[in-house]
Every structure is written in structure tokens, then in C-alpha cells.
């Protein structure tokens, strides 16, 4: 979605355009770092080109390549999601590889661990799963505040070797997708040159609709039969590759001082797309 901005920025930007510094301070207190002022004293008008009040940490505006997520998939698809969905569409968010640790399909270790020999974020799991879980949590939390009918599913064990075990992401997706739930599985792609970039690998078991389309417009779209049709999409999972797990995004996630803001901005991208898809 070119030109899309965070809702907070839009909200505060309007107030700024009124030219009222005091009004901006009143309405956007959390994102301003101004000294205390006497409201009754006329304030000097801020220069229009350089407003003194701006959100302290606005989310980057999307683009391609994207300043937050990097490049979109270098192997794009051509499908279009056209069907409408109900506003209360049940959305189930899963973390990719949540039940396949210590297996061949454990997910990417990421650039930091593989190439820089840094310690994994959590020794029990690949870094991809660690970040998948963080994004999953943030998406569900933010999605609820935006009125989505959204929930998380997380398997009870990090390693479940039998795909048909009813507790796996795949088994849960198959059942829930059959009853009409939207299954979104969060992933990070491998770092370059192995990764493809961000984008949605859509479900194969049903017609594609407005939510698939909205996510594809926000993140990019993979071919519908990517790698001849993956196990997840065959069971109704939409695989969302957030980005390749490499710098500079990986550094922002690993740095404790930028981590929560980065996760929040990623979640906001996902939730904005979901909200647009169901409305
Ligand atoms: Zn993955």
C-alpha cells in the first residue's frame, strides 16, 4: 500500500497542520518531548518546514524496497484475491515452525546466528521461531484493539514429529480452515542470497479473497503454487513472510532499545492489512 502511514502519524499530522503547537501537545502527549509551557502565554508559531513536535518514533512508511522490511519477494505471483469476507471473519494467527524445532523444517537461524556466530535469542529454538512468536503475540494484541475477531494458536510442544498429530499447526489449520477460519502463519524468510523477501504465500484449498489481497498489497505476493504447493497452504494456511531475517531489520529486532518499537511497527502493518481486508 504505497503512501500508507501509521494511524498515529495521521492523527497527529492533522493537528500539526492546524498550526497549533499547544493543540498538538494536548492531543499527542505521548509522542512529544517538549518542555512544560504556560498555555495562556502565546507561543511562537513553529516554522512550517520544521515542526518542533513530531512523533518520537513513527513507523516507517511502506515502500519497495521497504525501509522496515527490505525487499519484497523476488519471485512474484500474479493471483488476485477477489471474494468478500464477513467483518467478523475468525482470524487465527500461528507462528511458523512452532512445532518443528530440532527437525529439518525448524526455520532459519537468521544472519546473526549463522553468519555472525551470535547466540540464538532462545537456545531451545531457531531465531525465526523466536521472532515469529513475538510478531504473533503483537499482531493478536493489536488486532483485538482494532476490533478484529482474532486469536492465536500455539502448539503445546516445540517438537511434534507426526504431522497428523491433532496439536500441530497443520492439523489445527486443516480443521479450522474447513470451517471458514482465516489461518495466518507468521514467518521470516532466510537471509540473502537464500531468502526471497517479504510476501504472502496464499492458501491453496479455497478461493482467495479480500484478506489475501490486502496482505499481498501490503507485503507482496508469492506465486500461488510456490515450490509446487507447500504443506501449509494445502491445509489452508496463508504463509506471511514478514521479511528476510537479516540486517538491518534483524539488528533492530535484536537491539533491546529498538525491539519493541520494531515489533509494534511490523504488527501494525499486518493488522492494518487485516482490518482493510475485512472491511
Ligand atoms: Zn519459516
Report on the architecture of this protein.
- With 279 residues, this protein is an alpha/beta fold.
- The chain has two domains: 1-58, no CATH class; 91-278, Zn-dependent exopeptidases (Aminopeptidase, 3-Layer(aba) Sandwich), CATH 3.40.630.
- It has nine helices and five strands; from the N terminus they run H-H-E-H-H-E-H-E-E-H-H-E-H-H.
- It has helices at residues 7-17, 21-27, 111-114, 127-145, 169-178, 210-219, 231-234, 249-254, 259-278; strands spanning 91-95, 150-152, 182-189, 199-201, 237-244.
- A five-stranded mixed sheet has the order 2-1-3-5-4.
- The radius of gyration is 20 Å and the shape is globular.
- Bound molecules: zinc ion (ZN).
- Residues 36-72 are annotated as: Disordered.
- Keywords: Signal.
- Residues 1-33 form the signal peptide.
- Residues 50-60 have a biased composition (Low complexity).
- This is N-acetylmuramoyl-L-alanine amidase.
User: What is the annotated CATH architecture of the largest domain?
Assistant: 3-Layer(aba) Sandwich
pLDDT < 50 runs, ≥5 residues: 1-39
List all distinct small molecules, including ions and cofactors, that are bound in this structure.
zinc ion
CATH topology of the largest domain: Aminopeptidase
- Name the beta content range: 5-15%
Radius of gyration: 20 Å
CATH class of the largest domain: Alpha Beta
Number of helices: 9
Instruction: Say which CATH homologous superfamily of the largest domain is assigned.
Output: Zn-dependent exopeptidases
What summary fits the major beta sheet? 5 strands, mixed
Overall number of domains: 2
Number of strand segments: 5
Strand-pairing-aware structural class: alpha/beta
Shape: globular
End-to-end gap: 16 Å
The helix/strand order is HHEHHEHEEHHEHH
Protein name: N-acetylmuramoyl-L-alanine amidase
Biased composition (Low complexity): 50-60
Region (Disordered): 36-72
Signal peptide: 1-33
Amino acid at each position: 500500500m504505497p503512501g500508507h502511514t501509521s494511524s498515529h502519524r495521521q492523527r497527529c499530522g492533522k493537528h500539526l497542520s492546524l498550526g497549533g503547537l499547544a493543540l498538538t501537545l494536548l492531543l499527542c502527549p505521548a509522542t512529544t518531548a517538549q518542555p512544560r509551557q504556560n498555555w495562556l502565554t502565546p507561543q511562537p508559531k513553529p516554522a512550517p518546514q520544521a515542526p518542533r513536535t513530531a512523533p518520537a518514533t513513527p513507523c516507517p512508511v511502506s515502500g519497495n524496497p521497504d525501509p522496515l522490511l527490505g525487499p519484497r519477494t523476488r519471485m512474484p505471483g500474479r493471483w488476485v484475491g477477489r471474494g468478500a469476507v464477513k467483518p467478523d471473519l475468525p482470524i487465527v494467527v500461528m507462528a511458523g515452525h512452532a512445532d518443528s524445532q530440532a527437525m529439518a523444517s525448524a526455520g532459519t537461524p537468521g544472519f546473526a546466528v549463522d553468519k555472525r556466530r551470535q547466540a540464538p535469542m532462545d537456545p531451545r529454538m531457531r531465531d525465526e521461531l523466536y521472532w515469529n512468536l513475538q510478531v504473533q503475540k503483537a499482531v493478536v494484541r493489536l488486532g483485538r484493539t482494532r476490533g478484529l475477531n482474532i486469536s492465536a494458536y500455539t502448539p503445546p510442544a516445540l517438537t511434534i514429529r507426526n504431522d497428523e498429530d491433532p496439536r500441530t499447526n497443520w492439523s489445527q489449520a486443516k480443521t479450522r480452515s474447513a470451517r471458514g477460519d482465516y489461518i495466518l502463519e507468521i514467518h521470516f524468510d532466510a537471509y540473502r542470497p537464500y531468502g526471497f523477501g517479504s510476501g504472502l504465500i496464499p492458501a491453496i484449498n479455497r478461493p482467495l479473497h479480500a484478506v489475501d489481497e490486502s496482505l499481498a498489497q501490503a507485503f507482496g505476493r508469492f506465486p500461488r503454487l510456490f515450490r509446487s504447493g507447500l504443506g501449509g497452504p494445502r491445509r489452508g494456511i496463508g504463509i506471511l513472510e514478514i521479511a528476510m531475517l537479516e540486517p538491518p531489520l534483524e539488528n533492530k529486532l535484536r537491539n533491546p532499545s529498538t525491539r519493541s518499537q520494531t515489533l509494534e511497527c511490523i504488527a501494525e502493518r499486518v493488522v492494518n492489512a487485516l482490518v482493510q481486508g475485512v472491511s
